[in-house]
Amino acid sequence: MRVISRRVRRMWTGTFSIVARCPVAESVGVAVATAIPGAGAICPFGSPHGAISTQSFNNYYFGVDGLRYLGEGLPAPAVGEALLASDEDRELRQLLLVDNTGRSWAFTGNRCVGECGHMIGEGYAVAGNMLVSREVLKAMARCFEDTAGAELTLAERLLQVLEAGQAAGGDKRGKQSAALKVYSSQSLIPLCDLRVDEHATPVAELRRVYEVAKRELLPFMAAMPTRTALAGNMSESLRELLSMSPEERVPR
C-alpha cells in the first residue's frame, strides 16, 4: 500500500453521520446530515467493500483513497490509520468507516469544533461535530442498536438514525442537507443512493424522497443488468409502473 500526501481541498462541515453494516443482507451504508448545502457530494462514500464519512475540516481524499484501500482488502482500522498518517492536519478531521465484514473505526481530531465526538459499536460507528450536545450521538447509537433484529433494510435503519440525531438537536447551526448510500457486497450498483442538497428540513425531505424511491427507484435499481445477467430482472409490474407518469404512480 502506498499513501500519497496531498494538499487537500478543505471545507468545514459540521455534520452528524453513521456508517454501518447489515450482516443479514451483507450490505454496508452511510448516512449524513449537516448545515451546509450538498454534503452528499463531499462527505459520504460507499462501495461493496465498505462505507466512509469524511467530515469536519473535510479531507475529500479520505473518501477516495479509503475506498481504494478497502477494495484491496485492508480492514477498516488499518485504512483509517493509513489515511490519518497521510495528513499532517489530521487533528482538524473527523473520519468514520466500516468494512464489509463489519469492522468499524472512527477518529475525531482534537481541533474539531465542539460539541464533537464519536461512538463505535458492533458493526457501526456514529460521529458528529458542531453538535447541540453529545446526546445527538447517544440517540443515534441507541436507535441503531434498538433496530437490530427488526425486519428493516439497512437504508431504513440508517434513515431512522438520522431522524433520531435530528430529533436530539443535530447540528447546532441548523439544517440544510442530508444523504444516504447503501451498497450490497455483491454489486457495484448501489441499493440506495439519495441526496437532499438544500432544504429547510433535509432529514424529513430525505424521508419523503426515500418513500418515493422505495416504490419507484429502488426496485428498478435492484433489477438493473449486472455483469453476469445483462438482461436484468425487471418484472412486468415494474415495467408497467415506470411507464406511467409520476402523477399516475402515486398510490391511491
From TrEMBL:
It comes from the Bacteria. Transmembrane segments: none annotated. It holds the Pfam family DUF1028. This is DUF1028 domain-containing protein. It comes from Burkholderia lata (strain ATCC 17760 / DSM 23089 / LMG 22485 / NCIMB 9086 / R18194 / 383).
